[in-house]
Task: structure prediction
Amino acid sequence: RKEVEQDPGPFNVPEGATVAFNCTYSNSASQSFFWYRQDCRKEPKLLMSVYSSGNEDGRFTAQLNRASQYISLLIRDSKLSDSATYLCAVNPWTGGFKTIFGAGTRLFVKA
Amino acid sequence: DARVTQTPRDKVTEMGQEVTMRCQPILGHNTVFWYRQTMMQGLELLAYFRNRAPLDDSGMPKDRFSAEMPDATLATLKIQPSEPRDSAVYFCASGLSAGNTIYFGEGSWLTVV
Result:
């Protein structure tokens, strides 16, 4: 089993739709969680950190469920420009600062 | 804007050749990562360093890959000899261990024929 797993998608949604991605992690001692966005042929870039109480940044909401060991990303009112791959990242806290990524979920937003 | 710099951006080489990829982390960052990304495997962690010391290279094929940090401004990833299955995008990333967020370079696109 991989340390961090995501549904690869792709998710095809119309503009204005709400879409949610989940990501599960295997190490219950994990401390830090993130969502990154990666555009085609570009490097991953931080979208948002995920805090224990959940957090929101505009149309994006991230949540953490420690009991079930998953994090989620909700995108409301999706835009064409949201089309990208969304990668979740986890610091499993195995004694060092090591960030493990999921394989990513492809999102296509269509007009 | 401070950024991670990687060279080369693109590399096509023949099987058996040595490939060296270089990375300049963001000034002041004490943690450097090497990742490999393919369609099949996604983004895999190959190795990472803190304060130039290698902390974990368990994700790296030891027989042909090596990673070093000769100084705080340079990290290298070497493949010798290269094989077609090494074709991938290799990303370097850096961060501050206290901050946890990591920043990626633009990647080195390697094709081994």
